[in-house]
């Protein structure tokens, strides 16, 4: 059973082709679009401003997404939000990535095809141009991304889109085994990689 809560008469929306892990929490004005993935223990709190996940975007384990009153937090199509990241009242452009434990603050905008590195701190109102590599605390643009960089990021996002399909098709709650099976299967690229 999903942990989904209405507030002030506003109920979250989850597209039937999206996967939201049962331990994630969605509150209020949250819109999870087609093919999206929301990982374990993520918290999307639409109790001040709207949160929108565009088609094929992902929000990984332990992410926190929130915002200030009347300010939308938007992750555009193919946006990729790494483990433990915090987004607050910001805009993440199409095919952009926010790395693990990074923070993107109110009014900041991450341009399309950009990467915000792990543990970066993007301050309020920062405007990051498309195709930028952003590192540090406070964050700064260090270079323009190459086509190869963007292709690598896009591959990772497609893996999460495949994970959405795998989760919808095969994930279920089970009791653990008490020992390792002799012929224990392994995850292979044929299973995990985009088709």
From TrEMBL:
Family matches, as InterPro entries: Hexapep, Transf_Hexapept/Carb_Anhydrase, Trimer_LpxA-like_sf
Pfam families registered for this protein in UniProt: Hexapep
Name of this chain's protein: Phenylacetic acid degradation protein PaaY
Naturally occurring in which organism (per UniProt): Yanghanlia caeni
């Amino acid at each position: 059973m999903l942990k989904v809560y209405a507030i002030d008469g506003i109920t979250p929306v989850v597209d039937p082709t999206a996967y939201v892990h049962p331990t994630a929490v969605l509150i209020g004005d949250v819109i999870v679009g087609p093919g999206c993935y929301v990982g374990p223990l993520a918290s999307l709190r639409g109790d001040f401003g709207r949160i929108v996940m565009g088609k094929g975007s992902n929000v990984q384990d332990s992410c926190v997404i929130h915002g200030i009153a009347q300010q939308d937090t938007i992750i555009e199509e193919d946006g990729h939000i790494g483990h433990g990241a915090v987004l607050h009242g910001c805009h993440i452009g199409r095919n952009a990535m926010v790395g693990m434990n990074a923070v993107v603050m109110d009014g900041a905008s991450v341009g399309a095809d950009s990467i915000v590195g792990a543990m970066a701190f993007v301050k309020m109102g920062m405007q990051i141009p498309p195709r930028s590599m952003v590192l540090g605390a406070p964050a700064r643009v260090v270079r323009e991304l190459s086509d190869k960089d963007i292709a690598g990021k896009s591959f990772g996002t497609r893996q999460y889109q495949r994970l959405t399909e795998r989760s919808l098709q095969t994930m279920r709650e089970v009791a653990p085994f008490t020992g390792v099976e002799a012929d224990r299967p392994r995850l292979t690229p044929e299973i995990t990689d985009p088709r």
